[in-house]
């Protein structure tokens, strides 16, 4: 439920502990300062003292289900305790203005939401794309001013761009559509913005995880209308870490694309368009011919797909039973499968091998219960589940190797993108 506060900044501090507990899993002076500063920044930049709303959209992690969504599989995802914050004021007129910390203002005339080639790859394209989707689907779009502050790390595989997209969709949902837009529809609007305006191919997983909040199994058998099963996170003795190991993604496009193309080539062998329409038994029975006509690696990646989709189901069961050891065992098996079968820990010509290096270092630290590649792979991030008593040691050792700015201790966040406060009469 949205809490209505009156005008004074000091009154905001009275409600912040509850808000911080929900969003971040803990109270902190830094979070309080961040809230106060973004409100102050909005007031100064937009010269406003009127009613405003505060919104938050989290980042996300992929717990298991590595590279299964694009072939109709299942994924276990969770929203996490980093977010994009926004102070927003509804406006009359035809312009949306968005000012993010450290970036130039975005200004969009809502009367013209057509694709602009010159905006390709920009945040402006993402805003315009969400607006375009809303308008096409018959939702209301309207003017607003917004100041944004993000602590979702860029390049760390937790979907900073998706957080931004879903935030814009949630602002439109609250200000102009009476909260009538479903969570999955907001995710679809964000995916559309990324595909059609930003011009980046992506699925629906990241945006769905951020819109939904909490921890969920998302079944992509119907990619346009996935089935969502909420889960509960009851492993309070575990801390979750994401570590950005470094590495350059720019020359790895073909490596990412090969996973999709090879899985699809196996499905095509059976006259199907994705592996969800096939069975593991079919692949095993035809392994020799598949090896000759497609490739041995494609067969291995297909076996990973079937086993990984099943592991999502097993992880869901372990969560429902609060069986921590079974859950961690599944994560370890998933990690091994990504390394051995999916083969997305490093590119064949990669001598740095940042992800295997980080995993090997992690396994030498007491209290690390499970560690795996996170997300796309080849370069980028790892995900680690660490016993709370060992979290400080893990943070310090990974910090000394990869840098403080690349090590993130996270909590699972229950809420997705949402309005968190309405402030009347900002003074």
Helix content range of the residues, please? Answer: 40-55%
What share of the residues does DSSP label as strand, in percent? 15-25%
Main sheet attributes: strand count, strand direction, barrel closure: 9 strands, mixed
Order of helices and strands: EHHEEEEHEHHHEEEHHHHHHEEHEE
Shape: globular
Count of helical stretches = 13
CATH topology of the largest domain: Ribosomal Protein S5, domain 2
Mean pLDDT: 91
CATH architecture annotation name of the largest domain: 2-Layer Sandwich
Question: What does the model show?
Answer:
By secondary structure, the chain is an alpha+beta fold. It has two domains: 3-233 and 413-423, Ribosomal Protein S5, domain 2 (2-Layer Sandwich); 238-410, Alpha-Beta Plaits (2-Layer Sandwich), CATH 3.30.70. 43% of the residues lie in helices and 21% in strands. A hairpin with a 6-residue loop joins β10 and β11. The protein is globular, with a radius of gyration of 22 Å.
């Amino acid at each position: 439920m949205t809490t209505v506060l009156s005008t004074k900044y000091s009154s905001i501090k009275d409600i912040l502990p509850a808000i911080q507990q929900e969003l971040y899993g803990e109270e902190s002076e830094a979070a309080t300062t961040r809230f106060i500063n973004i409100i102050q920044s909005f007031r100064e930049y937009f010269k406003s003292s009127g009613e405003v709303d505060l919104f938050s959209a989290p980042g996300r992690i992929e717990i298991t289900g590595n590279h299964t969504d694009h072939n109709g599989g299942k994924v276990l995802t969770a929203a996490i305790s980093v977010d994009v914050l926004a102070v927003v004021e509804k406006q009359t007129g035809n312009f949306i203005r968005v000012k993010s910390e450290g970036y130039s203002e975005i200004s969009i005339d809502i009367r013209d939401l057509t694709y602009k080639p010159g905006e390709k790859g920009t945040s402006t394209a993402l805003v315009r794309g969400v607006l375009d989707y809303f308008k096409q689907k018959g939702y209301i779009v309207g003017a607003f001013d917004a100041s944004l502050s993000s602590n979702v790390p860029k390049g760390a595989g937790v979907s900073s761009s998706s957080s931004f997209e879903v935030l814009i969709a949630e602002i439109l949902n609250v200000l102009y559509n009476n909260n009538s837009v479903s969570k999955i529809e907001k995710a679809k609007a964000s995916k559309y913005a990324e595909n059609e305006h930003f011009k980046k191919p992506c699925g629906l997983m990241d945006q769905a995880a951020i819109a939904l909040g909490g921890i969920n199994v998302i079944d992509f058998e119907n990619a346009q209308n996935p089935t969502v099963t909420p889960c509960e996170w009851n492993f309070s003795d575990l801390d979750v870490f994401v570590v950005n190991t470094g590495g350059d993604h720019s020359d790895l496009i073909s490596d990412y694309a090969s996973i999709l193309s090879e899985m699809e080539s196996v499905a095509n062998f059976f006259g199907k368009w994705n592996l969800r329409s096939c069975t593991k038994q079919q692949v095993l029975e035809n392994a020799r011919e598949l090896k000759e006509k497609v490739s041995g690696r494609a067969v291995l990646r297909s076996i990973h797909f079937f086993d990984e989709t099943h592991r999502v189901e097993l992880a869901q069961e372990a969560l429902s039973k609060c069986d921590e050891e079974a859950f961690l065992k599944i994560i370890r098996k998933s990690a091994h499968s990504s390394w051995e079968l999916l083969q997305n820990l490093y590119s064949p010509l990669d001598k740095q091998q940042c992800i295997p290096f980080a995993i090997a270092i992690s396994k030498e630290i007491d209290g690390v219960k499970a560690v795996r590649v996170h997300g796309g792979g080849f370069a980028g991030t790892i995900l680690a589940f660490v016993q709370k008593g060992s979290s400080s040691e893990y943070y310090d050792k990974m910090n000394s190797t990869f840098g403080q700015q690349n090590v993130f201790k996270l909590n699972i966040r229950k809420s997705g993108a949402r309005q968190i406060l309405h402030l009347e009469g900002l003074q």
